[in-house]
Amino acid sequence: MMQVTQTINEKVTKASYLVSYRIAQEGEAHTIAKILIKPCVLDITKCMLDEKSAKHLSTVPLSNDTVSRRIHDLASYFKQELVTRLQKTRFVLQMDESTDVAGLAILLVIVRYPYESSFEEDMLMCSPLPTNTTGEEIFTKINIFFEENNLSWNDCIDICTDGAKAMTGKTAGVVSRIQKKAPNCGSSHCLLHRQTLAMKQMPSNLKLVMDEAVQIINFIKSRPLQSRLFSLLCEDYGSKHKTLLLHTEVRRLSRGKTLTRLFELKAELQMFFSDTSFSLKDRLYDKTWLFRLSFMADIFQKLNELNLSLQGKQTTVFQACNKITAFKRKLDFWIICVSKREIKIFTLLSEFVSDNDSEMF
């Protein structure tokens, strides 16, 4: 009898941990287990099995406090397991400081290390920066974490950052401070961030189109009434999309998605601005402007595909370099194609040229 009771209790506890783990993965409220998940499971069990089985399942503890404790236990276990692994091997760090929707500065540190027969990539720490976001403040946060968990800086062999001054400053940057602790530690600049910096040097005519496109989007998205009216217009006309996308400078995929959505909704925007005095509404009838917009949307969409292919836990620097080299060769090939007026590879540009006067190309 004691063995049977112990087995049941173990299963109940395991089930509670599994549900709590899924709630944590999805980022849902802890109360969802009690008010939604458990009632649904009991209803399914009653319909598919019987009342007796449902009675057994009702003993699984899924209250708000229980789920919170389970998630805390799981987080502590994962953290200790990760620290134990890092204490036995060398590793590299990738760090970035960003701002969340509430305006709070967040420090993210990701660690990559060899484990068994493969490389693993995990979140090492996620810590708020309540005051300054200087190199000293960031280094202090990471150094305290290392000291509390008995991690050695000598095991850190490389650091990848976004190239910001607080990260790469020669005297007060995070990298220079870490290299004082670990002289053999190298540093690298994130490929995606370098690409973002290169994009800032766009030709003036394309930069103007980009700025005006952002102004058109902001005219609608920054005004709730205009945004609602535009959504209703798109819904009435059966459009593929019902809203525009805001452009965010720090989001690497923003340009491609924003410009593509704007070009696809150009007809709806023409109708929406027909009765307004918006200064840039004539741009939506300017074939040269739309030609450049479609070209930029296609190019940035290609860059987005490259950016997504460079990510992943099993992606190595050799694979990333091969993909970038292949993309550079594609650029040379596209230049030749454009010089010969062969633009089928650019979907939106080809569509625009075929629907309008092809002599402008």
Give a structural overview.
With 361 residues, this protein is an alpha/beta fold. The chain folds into 3 domains: 2-76, no CATH class; 88-189, Nucleotidyltransferase, domain 5 (2-Layer Sandwich), CATH 3.30.420; 198-360, no CATH class. It contains 15 helices and 5 strands. It has helices spanning 2-26, 32-48, 51-57, 64-86, 135-148, 165-168, 174-181, 191-199, 204-221, 224-236, 254-264, 266-272, 287-309, 317-339, 347-355; strands at 91-99, 105-115, 118-128, 156-161, 186-189. The protein has a 5-stranded mixed β-sheet with strand order 3-2-1-4-5. A hairpin with a 5-residue loop joins strand 1 and strand 2 (105-115). Helix 2 runs antiparallel to helix 3 (51-57) and helix 9 crosses helix 13. The longest helix is centred in the first third of the chain and has 25 residues, at 2-26. The N and C termini lie far apart (84 Å).
